[in-house]
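Sequence, please.
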């Protein structure tokens, strides 16, 4: 089988490529140049797509004895991921750029090009499992990435290969060390890859400028502060509000109105929701029968909660068995089979439109 190995320069993709070679496949490595300023050096675990990452990926390919190429997708990444990220925040939503990158770059642009070039599959270092075409959680719960892969279609999953889903991250590093890969101890990337300093508010401010507006306390309707941009907040946020609300109870962001640029805050009892409404869903396999009982994960590192899902208004209505805090429009609601069934199979996902 002809396999294209997406090699980021990290330890996971290095081991995934090695396992594809070990399995006897005809493997070609490709590094995705996504940053428009790739000469910027990496700072520990922050950032990606730097010149160092490209060199690290090439060294592993050389050690494996496989062809290696760099594909420049910086322009498409900027349009489909970075610009989308900025636009979503400007509209008062909280996007997940890793999910968008998987959807539009790694398993759209890259997979489409790979198939057109005659490759049979794309192998990546994602921590998730594929069994019989079904997307499942990794055995390493702490590293599971099935949430950000929940947007993939059955056709995309049919041409994907995730060889690391059946092992722990510790084992991945052991394999890399056994092979003498220099990336064996390389730190994992954290935060948003295109914001290497971790300052999301500053990143957005440089692109959207100052857009001042009021901060309103939901309990009284009183304006308790001003901000320079509603894009600097997300629903559920507690820290960094920069206001004093008149009593000692902590306040959380309850809502963001982008037209009036109003940020509404309130106490913990007002911050919980028990129903989520979504946009049109995508399914990783055949669409399930609705209404139905599932588990839903509402953020990348969130805890799944039992729910009942019904179809409505072109999207889904998700009734939560346990009230949740910090459910922001724009986040992905990823559905899994209930734990009593198997619990680790991804059924599909939909973007949160509203929570109440």
């Amino acid at each position: 089988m002809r396999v294209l190995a997406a090699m980021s320069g990290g330890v996971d993709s290095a081991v995934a490529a090695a396992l594809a070679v070990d399995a006897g496949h005809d493997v070609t490595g490709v590094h995705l140049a996504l940053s428009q300023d790739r000469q910027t050096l990496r700072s520990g675990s922050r950032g990606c797509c730097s010149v160092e990452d490209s060199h690290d990926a090439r060294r592993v390919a050389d050690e494996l004895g496989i062809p290696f190429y760099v594909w420049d997708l910086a322009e498409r990444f900027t349009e489909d991921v970075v610009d989308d990220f900025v636009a979503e925040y400007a509209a008062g939503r909280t996007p997940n750029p890793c999910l968008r990158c998987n959807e539009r770059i790694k398993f759209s642009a890259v997979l489409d090009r790979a198939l057109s070039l005659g490759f049979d599959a794309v192998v990546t270092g994602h921590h998730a499992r594929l069994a019989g075409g079904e997307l499942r959680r990794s055995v390493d719960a702490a590293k599971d990435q099935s949430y950000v892969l929940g947007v993939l279609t059955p056709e995309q999953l049919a041409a994907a290969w995730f060889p690391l889903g059946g092992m722990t991250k510790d084992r991945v590093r052991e394999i890399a060390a056994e092979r003498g890969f220099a990336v064996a101890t390389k730190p994992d990337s954290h935060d948003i890859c295109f914001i290497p300093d971790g300052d999301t508010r500053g990143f957005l401010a440089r692109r959207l400028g100052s857009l001042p507006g009021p901060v309103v306390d939901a309990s009284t309707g009183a304006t308790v502060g001003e901000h320079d941009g509603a894009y600097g907040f997300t629903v559920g946020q507690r820290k960094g509000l920069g206001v004093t609300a008149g009593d000692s109870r902590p306040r959380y962001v309850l809502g963001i109105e982008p037209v009036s640029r109003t940020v509404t805050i309130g106490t913990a009892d007002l911050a919980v929701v028990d129903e989520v409404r979504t946009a049109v869903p995508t399914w990783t396999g055949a669409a399930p029968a609705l209404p139905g009982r599932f588990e839903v994960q509402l953020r990348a590192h969130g805890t799944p909660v039992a729910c009942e899902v019904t179809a409505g208004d072109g999207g889904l209505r998700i009734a939560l068995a346990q009230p949740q805090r910090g459910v922001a429009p724009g986040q992905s609601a990823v559905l899994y089979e209930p734990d009593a069934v198997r619990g680790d199979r991804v059924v599909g996902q939909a973007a949160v439109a509203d929570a109440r």
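The mean pLDDT is 92.
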